[in-house]
Amino acid sequence: MVEPFDAVDIIHTKRDRGVLTDRQIDWVIDAYTRGIVAEEQMSALAMAVFLNGMNRHEIARWTDAMIRSGERLDFGSLPRKTADKHSTGGVGDKITLPLAPLVAVFDVAVPQLSGRGLGHTGGTLDKLESIPGWQANMTNESIYEQLGTGCGAVICAAGTGLAPADKKLYALRDTTGTVECVPLIASSIMSKKIAEGTDALILDVKVGSGAFMKNIEMARELATTMVDLGTDAGVHTVALLTDMSVPLGLTVGNALEVRESVEVLAGGGPDDVVELTVALAREMLTAAGRPDADPEVALRDGRAMDVWREMIAAQGGDPDAELPTAAYTHEIVAESDGILEDLDALKVGVASWRLGAGRARKGDPISLGAGIEIHAKPGDSVTRGQKLLTLHTDEEARFERAFEALDGTLTIGSDAVAPISSVILERIAR
What is the C-alpha to C-alpha distance for residues 206 and 192, in angstroms, rounded to an integer? Predict the structure, then answer.
């Protein structure tokens, strides 16, 4: 077979700030998936895109080419509308766990295809695997059944058939310094979500030290790009920009975050987690034609907990089982009276990772019980000797590097610090 293009020519075009044609984009994605375009060539092209960007049409075509590299799911035959949520990743972000069953209470199906954690950001599947017996992998038939005639909510691993080009490119970007690139992030997320076949998609775009997008301008650009891609593909798409300067909630780590999620489903839990869960639920329900639904009531009256238990059991888990706990704990206490001035999300995320809650490379083992409990947040008054954090790990030797990661945060001063009034910063829709 004679290939219609040469990878080097395409690299030259983008290197020299040119615009790729539809045929060039279609070919390079297909050829990379087939192994014709080598890893080092796609690395060079990804770096050229990182440095020189893409226009809106290029991003849309790149996304479509990745979708066409694999299968597409179709939930059109389900008796329920479908709505999904995607988060760009943060520290303590356990929102998917209470959100999926909460939305399903109102007869809206939630096909939440999720991933695993890498580095300082946690993974939904890792968290749920803290529950004894729970299975992340499901067949398409099982997904359809659970969404159609079952509890209406599924949280599981995406099948290998969805956007395989993105799976290859995602791993490559992670090792070539091209992760923080709006065209590549947007096309990566949206190729999988559009291929998933949901009717509506709500995006939670994180902003701050613990997020990929460190400032609101970059986050706004990413959110707008993704909303455009989804809308143009016929998917009702809305984005919320949310704060990730401090960890979300009071726990970071797999089993610790499951416990906190169950507290939310029981009508309690930290205010910021409840606020964001309810806000995202309202967006999903409105997009699915249920603007009248009241998710706050469903958290309080136990209906969301009922769906959670059914969802976990349907995937082999025991919702009543004891969750893993770490072998060792260490408390970090306030060294003086005063007001806690900062709690940097990135530093806390890295510390949790070093305690064993995360992985440095795909496939690394993790400790399900490892992580960090947070006892005070910026703006809180503290007294000398008061607990600020409790660190959990299965290997005592990990504490030292976690302490190093936390250096420079947990500052206590005398000036008043305004606590974060809302984690929701902006809403972006078309």
Answer: 19
CB within 8 A of 99, min separation 6: which ones? Answer: 85, 110, 277, 280, 281, 284
Does residue 329 surpass a pLDDT of 70? yes
Residue 16, Cβ density class (10 Å: 0-12 exposed, 13-18 middle, ≥19 buried): exposed
| 30, HSE (Cβ side, Cα atoms, 13 Å) | 14
Contact 412, 338 (CB under 8 A): yes
Q: How confident is the model at residue 289 (pLDDT cuts 50, 70, 90)?
A: very high
The rounded Cα 29 to chain-centroid distance in angstroms is 25
The per-residue pLDDT for 365 is: 85
Mean of pLDDT values over 270-276:
97
DSSP 109: B
User: Sorting pLDDT into bands at 50, 70 and 90, what band is 121?
Assistant: confident
CA angle 198, 290, 60 (to 5 degrees): 30
DSSP state of 89: -
Residue 405 structure tokens: 């990661």
Percent of the chain predicted with pLDDT > 70: 99
Q: Which helix (H) or strand (E) holds 198?
A: none
pLDDT of res. 118: 67
Among 71-75, 237-241, 275-279, 393-397, the minimum mean pLDDT is found in 71-75
Rounded CA gap, 112 and 104, in Å?
11
pTM: 0.94
Residues 349 and 336 sit within 8 Å (Cβ to Cβ): no
> Residue 384 — very low, low, confident or very high, per pLDDT cuts 50/70/90?
very high
Point out the residues that are catalytic: 86, 166, 173, 188, 192
What are the structure tokens assigned to 12, written together?
A: 């030259």
